């Protein structure tokens, strides 16, 4: 293929793909009502966290190795976590901080202090707002909400558009995209409008393999079948983000539900099948009705971060070449490969070979590498490893070829 025809990421996408691991945070009126989808009738009186501490949320994220943070500024129930002028259905009408609190501001501040890129989720579907029924009026309302968020809370890394509940509904995407380009030109746009990041097609946090970066973006609501289709040859560069809640089946906090927290093995499996397939993982950790990440979730997320560090922060050897030579015969059970995707995703088929005392052994046969591919296999003792590129659209440029022995 002509090099010029290869799709390439924008510098913003390139930087975003390097983040790899984000924390999603679902918090709102639902947190106080033991529910996932409020219908917009819950009284703001119910919103009253006793000890909300956004710094605790972001510190846990930071210390566990998360590289960005996204908050539900407004979920489908329409309750706004910031001091908006567009509606009274917000923190302003709640008893929390006598109606003077602003969760978006507290998160933005903590993110700034802890150097954590910050993003927001703003549900287009609004079950509270009476003008939702009137398309044009609601388009104005939504544009104003978005403008408030994109102008009042510092730089945003990503704007998360959820298609749920909006099946068959059209929004003014042209205007929405105009607002984003005007106020937050560097922000990634998730899933709708003119997305720069696409939904992976499930809420299990896993990407298919191969998960090419050039798949056409998912423009429909996440619940339509069209979302699950994969076209490997479209020229657009739209990397995938894998969202998943740490508690199985719930995005918001619910009391007495600690048993649904995913185990470390499950989280690692998700990591291998998201980040390890070249996608980005957005793991949801929900603060409770105190406004704190519960101890059990904190423990799980810290263990997850520690395990990623244990496995992958000390490579036995690394190179940018296609041959990795060890000083002596060495046990290996994981390999991380990265292409320099600034130049496009070039490799289409590869094989990994270990040179052992019995001769060469094929460890892996794969297709996409892209931003990252994590391969694991039964431990093998080798003098060297070789990456054989069997098919490529242009000269492959390897950013990283690392070997690990993780054990266990
Ligand atoms: C879905 C929503 O309906 C869930 O409540 C959650 O926000 C998830 C991330 O997206 O579409």
In angstroms, what separates the terminal alpha carbons? 42 Å
**Architecture of the largest domain, according to CATH?**
Alpha-Beta Barrel
CATH fold label of the largest domain: TIM Barrel
Q: What summary fits the major beta sheet? A: 8 strands, parallel
What series of H and E elements makes up the topology? HEHEHEHEHEEEHEHEEEEEE
**For the CA atoms, what is the radius of gyration?**
22 Å
Helix content percent band: 10-25%
| Percent range for β-strand residues | 15-25%
- Total strand count, please? 14
What's the CATH C level of the largest domain?
A: Alpha Beta
- The number of helical runs is 7
Walk me through this protein's architecture.
22% of the residues lie in helices and 25% in strands. It has 2 domains: 3-312, TIM Barrel (Alpha-Beta Barrel), CATH 3.20.20.80; 317-404, Jelly Rolls. The protein is built from 7 helices and 14 strands. It has helices at 11-19, 54-63, 103-113, 135-152, 173-183, 264-274, 295-312, and strands at 21-25, 68-74, 118-122, 158-160, 188-190, 198-199, 240-245, 280-284, 317-319, 323-339, 347-356, 359-366, 373-392, 398-404. The chain has 408 residues and is of the alpha/beta class. Helix 2 packs parallel to helix 3 and helix 4 runs parallel beside helix 5 (173-183). The site of beta-L-fucopyranose has 6 residues, from loops.
Brief sketch in words of this structure:
The protein has 408 residues and is of the alpha/beta class. The chain has seven helices and 14 strands.
């Amino acid at each position: 293929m002509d090099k010029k025809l290869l799709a390439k990421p924008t510098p913003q996408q390139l930087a975003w793909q390097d983040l790899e691991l984000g924390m999603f945070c679902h918090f709102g009126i639902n947190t106080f009502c033991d529910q996932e989808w409020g219908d917009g009738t819950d009284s703001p009186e119910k919103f009253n966290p006793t000890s909300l501490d956004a710094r605790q949320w972001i510190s846990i994220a930071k210390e566990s190795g998360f590289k960005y943070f996204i908050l539900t500024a407004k979920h489908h129930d329409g309750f706004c976590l910031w001091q908006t002028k567009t509606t009274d259905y917000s923190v302003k009408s709640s008893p929390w901080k006598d109606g003077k609190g602003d969760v978006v501001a507290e998160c933005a501040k903590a993110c700034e202090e802890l150097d954590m890129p910050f993003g927001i989720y703003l549900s287009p579907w609004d079950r509270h707002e009476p003008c939702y029924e009137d398309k044009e009026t609601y388009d104005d309302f939504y544009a104003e909400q978005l403008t408030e968020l994109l102008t009042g809370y510092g730089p945003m890394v990503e704007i998360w558009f959820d298609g749920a509940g909006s099946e068959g509904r059209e929004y003014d995407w042209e205007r929405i995209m105009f607002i984003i380009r005007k106020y937050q030109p560097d922000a990634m746009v998730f899933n709708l409008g003119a997305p720069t990041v696409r939904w992976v097609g499930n809420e299990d946090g896993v990407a298919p393999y191969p998960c090419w970066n050039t798949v056409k973006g998912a423009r429909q609501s996440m619940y339509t079948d069209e979302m699950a289709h994969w076209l490997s040859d479209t020229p657009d560069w739209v990397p995938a983000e894998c969202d998943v809640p740490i508690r199985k089946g719930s995005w918001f906090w619910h009391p007495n539900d600690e048993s649904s927290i995913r185990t470390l093995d499950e989280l690692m499996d998700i990591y291998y099948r998201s980040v390890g397939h070249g996608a980005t993982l957005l793991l949801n950790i929900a603060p409770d009705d105190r406004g704190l990440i519960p101890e059990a979730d904190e423990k799980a997320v810290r263990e997850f971060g520690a395990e990623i560090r244990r496995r992958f922060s000390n490579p036995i050897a690394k190179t940018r070449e296609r041959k990795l030579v060890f000083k002596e015969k060495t046990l290996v059970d994981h390999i991380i490969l990265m292409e320099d995707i600034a130049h496009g995703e070039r490799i289409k088929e590869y094989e990994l070979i270990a040179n052992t005392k019995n001769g060469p052994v094929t460890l892996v046969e794969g297709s996409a590498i892209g931003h990252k591919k994590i391969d694991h296999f039964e431990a093998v003792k080798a003098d060297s490893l070789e990456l054989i590129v069997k098919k490529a659209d242009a000269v492959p440029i390897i950013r990283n070829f690392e070997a690990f022995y993780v054990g266990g």
